[in-house]
């Protein structure tokens, strides 16, 4: 392979390109499996806009008062939990420099489509009304039965279908719908397609409403991720999930310190009550030092290697347990990435911090699969930083890969990527 002499940036680009290519190839195949097996089946339902595949989950009362989605049996990382077709999506391809006016056009188009879908289908309208507007006391909101979201049984051929189609028009409460869209819409930024498009200053701007997904709460210690294929959102487990555990995904970037995350949650209109936030914001012993480190990280410019060493030493002296160490490493991921991304910093501090693959493995335990963590795992493994023998490392890479992309990433594809990384590194050191 002609990779000898590549600098770190080029190697990084090569790896992310390889990830994209593998993903793209894999989507074609897995799309055929997922879409034919689950999604297309939904189109035989009475109300095609509501085609859903609901896995082993149900809606229950969440610990912070509102409703949430819970696993009803053990689920392995990578397994598909839900596939849901959007009630409506507004999309636009706009440049980074687009003014808010262009975004408003996308939003208006989206709102019109939601209203249209609700007007045409009374069941869509009633499901939309189960969502929170953000104004009701959350613990008073009724918990919907999961059966409401499941694909409806094939209709008997007795003419009732025609009767349903001509069901009387519903009067829509537009004001209420606008409020609940504010709380429950999701953007498509988890879609691989947006990563591919994002490279040349073009932003794939997509906003949509997936009713069942809107019951999934946020956590900074999430156990699920979503990807998008066309109008379908696919939610998969990004960590192993136990029966009875709440399914959560990240509404915003959780590879940041607690202060930043709190700001992001407030912008969404809530105070995050996940266990990671409760620990990081509530630990009196670590609190002050964490606030200082966060300040340094956010202001930038300092020696990120020194910051990581201080954090690791503080955690060692305070006897922070592994699970919480993983939370804090995830919070200061930016500093770890800067350290491991610089040969100079690695030479200066490398012996005083755990290896890159070990940090990546720890962080994946806290936030589940994630592209940036997977890349670090690959790079750390390629540098042979001692997180096991070749087979053990390969296994870890495949596991984080599946947790990141769901079952669409095949073992073979991850092996190819892993080999590419090792070959590139050994050629580089020639
Ligand atoms: C898309 S809805 C999720 C479903 C919502 N819990 C319900 O009962 O309708 C988003 C809202 O759920 C609540 N929520 C989600 N994640 C939360 C968290 N980690 N901590 C506190 N509230 C949260 C907030 O009120 C937020 O505005």
Secondary structure: elements and pairs:
Elements: H1 8-42, E1 52-54, E2 57-61, E3 67-71, E4 80-85, E5 88-95, H2 100-120, H3 122-128, H4 160-165, H5 174-184, E6 186-187, H6 192-197, E7 202-209, E8 217-218, E9 224-229, E10 232-237, E11 246-249, H7 258-268, H8 275-282, H9 284-299, H10 304-317, H11 322-331, H12 333-340, H13 343-349, H14 356-367, H15 371-382, H16 390-405, H17 411-428
Parallel strand pairs: 8-11
Antiparallel strand pairs: 1-4, 2-3, 3-11, 4-10, 5-7, 6-7, 9-10
Helix pairs in contact: 1-17, 2-3, 9-10, 10-12, 10-13, 11-14, 14-15, 15-16, 15-17, 16-17
The protein binds S-adenosylmethionine.
List keywords for this structure.
four-stranded mixed sheet; Beta-clip-like; disordered N terminus; alpha+beta; binds S-adenosylmethionine; 430 residues; 2 domains
Written account of the structure:
By secondary structure, the chain is α+β, with helices and mostly antiparallel strands. It folds into 2 domains: 8-18 and 257-428, no CATH class; 51-249, Beta-clip-like. It is built from 17 helices and 11 strands. It has a 4-stranded antiparallel β-sheet with strand order 1-4-10-9, covered by helices on one side. A 4-stranded mixed β-sheet has the order 2-3-11-8, with no helix packed on it. The chain has a 3-stranded antiparallel β-sheet with strand order 5-7-6. A hairpin with a 5-residue loop joins strand 2 and strand 3 (67-71). It is globular. Bound molecules: S-adenosylmethionine. S-adenosylmethionine is lined by residues 62, 64, 66-68, 132, 134, 138, 141, 183-184, 214-215, 217-219, 268-270, 272-274.
